[in-house]
Amino acid sequence: MSRELVFKRIRQALQNGGEDTSATGAPSTWEYGRPTAVADPIGLFIERIKDYRAVVLRTPGVEEVPLLIASCLAKAQATSVVVPVGFDEAWIRTAALAGIELYRDEPPLSKQELDGISAVVTTATSAMAETGTIALDHRSGQGRRILTLLPDTHVCVIRIDQIVSDVPESMALLKTSIQAGLPITLISGPSATSDIELTRVEGVHGPRNLYVIVVG
Amino acid sequence: MTDARRSTQTSVRSPQHSERSGQMRDTHRSASTCDAQHSAQTRGRRTPAPPPDPLLESLPFPLAARQLLQNQQLRANLRHATHTIRSKRKSVVAELPHWEELRSAGAAMKDRALCSLDSYLEQLEANLIQNGAQVHWASDAAEAQRIVTCLIKAHGVDEVVKIKSMVTQEIELNEALEAEGIAAWETDLAELIVQLGHDRPSNILVPAIHRNRDEVREIFLREMKLYGQAAPDDLDNDPEDLAACARNHLREKFLRAKVALSGANFAVADTGTLVIVESEGNGRMCLTLPDVLISITGIEKVIPTVEDLEIVLQLLPRSSTGERMNPYTSMWTGVTPGDGPQEVHVVLVDNGRTRVLADPIGRAALRCIRCAACMHICPVYERVGGHAYGSVYPGPIGSVLTPQLRGLKSVLDKSLPYASSLCGACAEVCPVKIPLPDLLLHLRRRVVDEVKRRHVGLEQTAMRCVGWVMGSGRRFGLVGRLAGWTRIFIRRDFITHLPWLGKRWTARRDMRMPARVSFRRAWRRRARDKK
Ligand code: SF4
Q1: Distances, alpha carbon B503 to alpha carbons B72, B322, B409, B496, B508, in Å
Q2: Which CATH class is domain A36-215?
Q3: Which of A92, A183, B136, B395 could connect to B332 by a Cys-Cys bridge, CB 3.0–4.6 Å?
Q4: Are residues B402 and B445 in the same domain?
């Protein structure tokens, strides 16, 4: 069996010279999950995610969220939107009134159906200021992974208390989701490529428009 | 008809002068002849055929490099690419005050994983199985190919979509699947350009850097219609439109695919989570849409704990594309009920990795997280590009990894540790602190030891003679005096041509004639005169 063969080879290899790899020597003093010093995480997050050419809107309270969602969808010229299970229905009422068709993912929509829908609205799990990253663990309100993939516009609602300094702090929050077996998607701006002559092009496969609504 | 004629013509050409050398002189013209030929040979194939003369594989590095250096276009493109990425990397790395600490943490973490590789792999396997994934082990490339082929065939499909992955290139999976009648479609934009262009990737990060926008347009127009959704006739050469064209072409394939293949950037032992770091979203498509996901990954990709992700997720994007964070990162742990593929396989591949692990010094190469920073900073790579390294791993890391993976057997592998000026730039940028120049020297020593073990070479004999002469002052003085006598016969100041083996020295430099009077004698005379 190859499994045994591979393990045998590994154990033999490790007997050769044991511990002493050509390693850097010094044991790491890294502390996990440390917040990094960021003066204004919310401001930095907004600045950084704008760098990726996402559109960011900020509102002090939830009251304005329905209006902002509707205006994002209008700006993206969306005609239909998929609403994940657990997403606050009240938030999309304005959009529905504006004539945008709503699809609920219950029962689950097929790939083909989703491919025909122009936008998706979700919440998020956490956001990283330093890198301008949104993290989804696809729990209630964030939808199955495919929902934030096929539609061309993604509108994401984030509360300011979800915004943390940097990758370590956010990963520490995501740890329980990962341990619970949930899939994680980290999104830093719309999909992009620099494959042709290193020219940056937004939107190859994922949503080409990313709208972020920061609440609080 | 014309196709047939063309291929008979080329078959007359000597093998060394096939496509590649032609391509060197005139990228445009020969690229199209080469492609036409392929279509002729490849009727019945499911995917475009790669070039028949792979990677100049048999040539030792200096010879391959000499050929590639003739290609002005490639050199200009590479220079542009490497310098752009270099400066982006530099500026985002400078943003993090704790970058050095992060690098040490990365190195230590990978070392920790490698030093107990067996127990971490056992943990990974157990957690994968517990979360509904099926785990397979492959000791070499052939076995990995077999496993993947069987899995695909079991689902009765003859087409799969694929995320760019180094290990699948290493085990030459696409061609193995093709031979079994299975079409494996690359979905990364650059890889698609390479695949449709009957080409090979020239770089880990920007595999199609050797193609300009006009060439890409031409390839799309010519090839897409043969394999699916055609490119629109009025396609122009704007990268944005070219990307949109690829989006449409691939969307059809994504929606249709039942099975997807991927690699993994990291495999977390304590949770059984695999991680893919990408830019375009094609990875997410492959990981989410199909019913079956087969992830092929090298055994060295394992990292101990879920906490360790924070280290590599900071190191990798900044080092590779020079971004604070790449657009998309996906993590999945076996099967997620109701979300994504409901059948998940993980194939863990050795294929020489345990051989690398067995060298306590050389094993540091297994820390590599494939960011390509060492390539982009390398002055040698910047000039010759990826093809000369004769493997999917080019640049400094290729020079230390390839020979170890394959076992320092071929002339090419033995020449790779010498493909460096030892300037040390690579070690400075490597996010996991691999001491690349030290490893190069270590491997040079292994190459020399190998030679020594086999036969006492001329060099050794010569060195021994010199050692004997220099071992005593009297002998050394005598030889000095004898050397001075050559002046009697040769009246020039420089030796420009030596015969036989000496030619290898004088081909590159002139040698001063020995002095008429040796230093020792001159010194003695001076002392005498003073008295
Ligand atoms: S050796 Fe270091 S710099 Fe080179 S690709 Fe690997 S991790 Fe990156």
Answers
A1: 30, 47, 28, 9, 9
A2: alpha beta
A3: A183
A4: yes
Which of B409, B427, B454 represents a domain boundary (last residue)?
B454
Q: How far is the CA of B4 from the centre of ligand 1 (A)?
A: 45
Identify from B79, B86, B111, B312 which residue to disrupt to test chain A contact, counting A C-beta atoms within 10 A and taking the largest count.
Answer: B111
Q: Do B430 and B464 lie in a common domain?
A: no
Mean pLDDT, range B383-398, rounded to an integer: 87
Chain A, window 163-192: residues with a beta carbon less than 8 angstroms from a chain B beta carbon? 166-168, 171-172, 175, 178-179, 181-192
What is the pLDDT at residue B487?
A: 80
Quick check: CB of B434 below 6 Å from ligand 1?
yes
pLDDT band at B64 (very low <50, low <70, confident <90, very high): confident
**Displacement of CA B311 from its chain's centroid (Å):** 24
Range from B2-16, B292-306, B423-437 carrying the lowest mean pLDDT: B2-16
Look at residue B90 and tell me if it is in a domain.
Answer: no
Tell me which residue has its CA closest to atom 7 in ligand 1. Answer: B368
Instruction: Give per-residue burial for B31-56: e unless 16+ CB within 10 Å, then b.
Output: bebbbebbbbeeeeebbbbbbebebb
CA of B177: how far to CAs of B161, B183, B308, in Å? 12, 7, 35
Is B74 a residue whose pLDDT tops 70?
A: yes
Domain ranges for chain A: 36-215
Residue-wise pLDDT for A11-51, tens only, equals 999 987 655 544 444 467 889 999 998 999 999 999 999 98
**One domain, residues B156 and B14:** yes
Burial pattern A114-148, b for ≥16 Cβ within 10 A else e, equals bbebbbbbbbbbbbbbbbbbbbbbbeebbbbbbbb
Nearest chain A residue to B74 by CA: give it: A197
Are B315 and B400 in the same domain?
no
> B151: which residues sit within 8 A by CB, 6+ positions away?
B259, B292, B294, B345
ipTM higher than the 0.85 cut: yes
List average pLDDT for each run of 10 residues in chain A, which is 216 residues long: 94 75 57 91 95 93 95 96 96 94 94 95 96 96 96 96 96 96 93 79 85 96
DSSP labels for A153-187? EEEEEEEGGGEESSHHHHHHHHHHHHHTT--EEEE
Domain around B526: 458-530
Return the residue in A196, A199, A201 with the most chain B beta carbons within 10 A, the one to mutate for interface testing.
A196
Beta strands in B108-192 (DSSP E): 133-138, 159-162, 183-186
Ligand 1 within 6 A of CB of B365 = no
pTM of the predicted model as reported, rounded to 2 decimal places: 0.85
Mutate to test the pocket of ligand 1, among B303, B397, B405, B440 (most ligand atoms within 8 A of CB): B397
Q: Which two tokens stand for residue A54?
A: 């996402």
Within this chain, do residues B39 and B163 fall inside the same structural domain, yes or no? yes
Query: What's the number of domains chain B is made of?
Result: 3
Is B233 a member of any domain? no
Judgement on whether residues B347 and B284 belong to the same structural domain of the protein: yes
Is residue B150 included in any domain, yes or no?
A: yes
For residues B124 and B18, membership in a common domain is answered with yes
Does position B57 have pLDDT exceeding 70, yes or no? Answer: no
Q: Do A21 and B364 touch (CB under 8 A)?
A: yes
Per-residue pLDDT tens digits for B407-433 = 888 888 899 999 999 999 999 999 999
pLDDT class for B12, splitting at 50, 70, 90?
very low
DSSP string, A59-84: ESSGGGHHHHHHHHHHHTT-SEEEE-
As separate numbers, helices (DSSP H) first and strands (DSSP E) second, chain B gives 26, 12
Residues B66, A139: Cα–Cα separation, whole Å: 56
The reply to whether B274 and B316 lie within a common domain is yes
Residue that is written with structure tokens 């445009």 in the block = B28
pLDDT the model gives residue B424? 94
The answer as to whether B278 is a domain residue is yes
